[in-house]
What does this fold into?
Amino acid sequence: MIQTFKMAFRDLNRNRRRTFFSALAVGVGLALLMLMASVINGEMGGAIEQAINLQSGHIQVRAATYDENRNSLKWEDLVENPDQVASQIGALPPVQAATPRLFASGFLATGNDSAGVRIYGIDPASAANNPYRNGMLSGQFLTPDDSAGLLIGQPAAVRLHLKVGDDVSLSINTANGSVDEQTFTIRGIFSTGTYGFDNGTVLMPLAKAQAITQTQNHASTIFVLLKNTADTGSVMTALNLSGNLKALTFTDMNPLVVEWEAMAKSYIALFYIIILAISASVIINTLIMSVYERTREIGILSAIGMRSGRIMSLFLAESSLLAVGGVVLGWILGTAGIALFNINGFYVGNMGINGILISNTIYAKPVMADMTNLSIATFIVTLLAGLYPAIMASRMEPIAALRAEK
Amino acid sequence: MEVVKIENVTRIYKIGAIETQALRGVNLTIANGEFTALVGPSGSGKTTLLQMIGCLDQPSSGRVFVDGKDVTSLNRNQRADMRKGHIGFIFQFFALIPTLTAYENIEMPLLLNGHGANQRRERVMELLKAVDLVDRANNRPDQMSGGQQQRVAIARALATNPTLILADEPTANLDTANGEGVMEIMAQLNKETGVTFVFATHDPRVIKYARRVVTLRDGLIVSE
It folds into this structure.
């Protein structure tokens, strides 16, 4: 066995440049696979994380009749005594924060510009609102008793030419189906780094939102953030909700993200196959060339009594050494690429996918299991690629091989 | 005792519709310890006959016995085992593995035969001494002259103590001095070890070393 690998190593060493470029082809293929897996993981993980932090939470508790698409403000469609429900949920150990939120549709107008917006009535004191608080670009975050201030996302502020301190007119739907209009002052401008959210969302204190929409002591939802996403199922089981309330998980509320993730996984599997096939064809080509160049040597080995199986194992040893070299190069190139995109990310801006919150910058997030599985897959594919040339070499008739031109 | 027995062997090569009869019914017996030359012009069938004896090729008809065993009915791996255990080869073009040193080339048949490391080392050193190449043990073929390479090939052929060594034009690619040297070593080893040598040649300087000369022409033995 050692002798076989020694011979295989020397055979590969005989044409170092070709060997290096063959291993490099395998390495580049693996590096691309690792980078792609990390980027997709970062993108999908980021999309789910953004959706949870900014929009859906891990769990939402709503009135059984609440229709998210209509932003209903009728009292029977809302959660009554939301603070009480939120504090009950917040007492569960896995829960990081549970806070009421009120959603409404409205129309924001300045002297010259106007835009439709989604209004979030939030409890400014809740830790669940940290993503907004941490994203403040200018001005101050809301206070619970602020009855005339609101926060606006940066893209909307730019579009409407608004800055901190400007007054705007907000028309908002109310519980009785009418529209109320009031003047608000821009207290601050925020950016969560997610264009889809920042472009159309206005934040105001929950109390003010309840007052202007005439929903008194009601909320659209109890927004629940958990310490650990894996606890979602157990918290759902532990929730003891009254009959007119329902609970939804983040997967229920973000079906597009879930579908998109499944679709992305299918596409990436296709890319994996293409890249592995290209790597395999390089190895097949290299080893076939090697078989043709060494036809006479194969004849000599056969003449001195080397069995077909051992000749085959010699070529398989070469492909396994190429595979090891390729995997090592792949890790060097792959980890370098992943580190680059993990630190700097790459800016994608507004991807324009409605219903999915994708960060403006995507970061590569490597998963060790993915990297290990891809390395094993690359090794196996490279080894299998050596099978055909190995069989070809082992089936050569010694007499024909010995006649070959040197 | 006979090492090789050939009974009415023919070999027909087919290339497309053209058939070439390389051997036309050869009968030959070679006894243990012989130093026999197969001679004849190019195309006479001497290399083909050597290949039949060496289990490298199979006859179209007839039977070949090596060490009393009928080798005509053996499969590919059985023929490889026969070569490994009973037959050593020396080729015109030296036929060393270019990536292996002289030492490793000689060691290869011993490895294939499953000899232990110490046994291999002793045997290789003994053979390197026999062909006077101890100082070239770590040289690869491209670092040796043609004569030195052929001496390594002789050592390799002898490594497993075969009963039969087949040499195809062993001096054809060597100058006179090296050719003579190689033939002297072969003759000496034949005397010392009693191993049977059969070599194909048309070089008169080589034929003079043979104790038995078998002449072929057009696929038939015409004289002895």
In short: Residues 84 and 109 of chain B are 7 Å apart (CA to CA). The longest strand of chain B covers residues 2-15. The mean pLDDT of chain B is 88.
